[in-house]
Amino acid sequence: MQANNTLVLPQNDTILILRGSMLKLVNHDHIAAAFLNQIVYWRDKMGRTFYKTDQDFSEELHISLFTFRRIKRNVIKNLPFIKVTRQQIPARTHYEIDYEMLNAFLAENDTPQTTNIDRLTNIDQTRVLQSAQSITETKTEITKKQQQPVVVNLDAFEEQEKPAVKKFLSTITKDQQITVMAVMMIAIKGTTISNKVGYLRSLVNAVHNGTFTPNEQKAQHSPITTEGLLRQERKRKQAEDSRHKVNNKDFFANLKVQYGKKKIK
């Protein structure tokens, strides 16, 4: 009697795919990578923005509703190329993909690893893995130690884009942040930029590569340079800081005028 060496799968079985390229975009979180891959699958299959309830999607991924919502909130919504919106009653989550940005991220991560990771020390392995993390994160240990606070106004970006924008800007100095945003605002006013995060990323990369040499830009009515916009942005930041600064002397003087000096019993 011969053994049956053929796998017999259930009729309604489903397949979940883990792509190496997707893993790199979500810091090697396997569940998040499967989640991202399913978003790409359904967007391609439907040919347009698609929607799913959290319950349906969590069952498709074979995870609890709590785990699904945590990953959607902490990982998926922070990916700048994924747009997530909630509509209708009961609430359905709609998913859309910016393929231009996603393809750019995948292309940048497509660097073959020639090092034999099995022969590396634990520290070296950690560094190799860190170098393959999402491009929306700081890639090197040195850069992580040199992260700068973001001091520029990010109103030009959508809310879901701001986490990625902050990560890019935190890798350059405060003055560089101001200059980069000044150049970007000139570009936004002069033309239509469909991928603002991608454009900002290219400016930040130019700063890192030493090729960021902004030229003088001219407005329609009066000439304005990048240096001029830099001064304007600094003044705006100083004015904003002064509005939020509390002068204790004036504060207590106003209290005395309003309420008078009362004797404490």
Account of the protein in words:
It is extended, with a radius of gyration of 25 Å. The chain has a 3-stranded antiparallel sheet. A two-stranded antiparallel ribbon has the order 4-5. It has helices at residues 20-25, 30-46, 54-61, 65-74, 99-109, 122-131, 141-145, 162-169, 174-190, 196-209, 226-244, 248-259; strands at residues 50-52, 82-87, 92-97, 217-218, 223-224. Helix 9 (174-190) crosses helix 10 (196-209) and helix 9 packs across helix 11. Strand 4 (217-218) and strand 5 (223-224) form a beta hairpin. The chain starts with 19 loop residues before the first helix and ends in a 6-residue tail after the last helix. Helices cover 52% and strands 7% of the residues. With 265 residues, the chain is mainly alpha-helical. The chain has 2 domains: 20-106, Arc Repressor Mutant, subunit A; 145-244, no CATH class.
Count of domain modules: 2
| Residue runs with pLDDT of under 50 for 5 or more positions | 111-145, 216-222
Strand order of the largest sheet: 1-3-2
Radius of gyration from CA coordinates? 25 Å
Cα separation of the termini? 102 Å
Approximate helicity band: 40-55%
Question: Strand share of the residues?
Answer: 5-15%
Mean pLDDT: 74
> What overall geometry do the principal axes of the alpha carbons give?
extended
Taking the sheet with the most strands, its summary is: 3 strands, antiparallel
Q: How many strands appear in the DSSP assignment?
A: 5
N-to-C order of helices and strands: HHEHHEEHHHHHHEEHH
SSE class: mainly alpha
Q: Please, how many helices?
A: 12
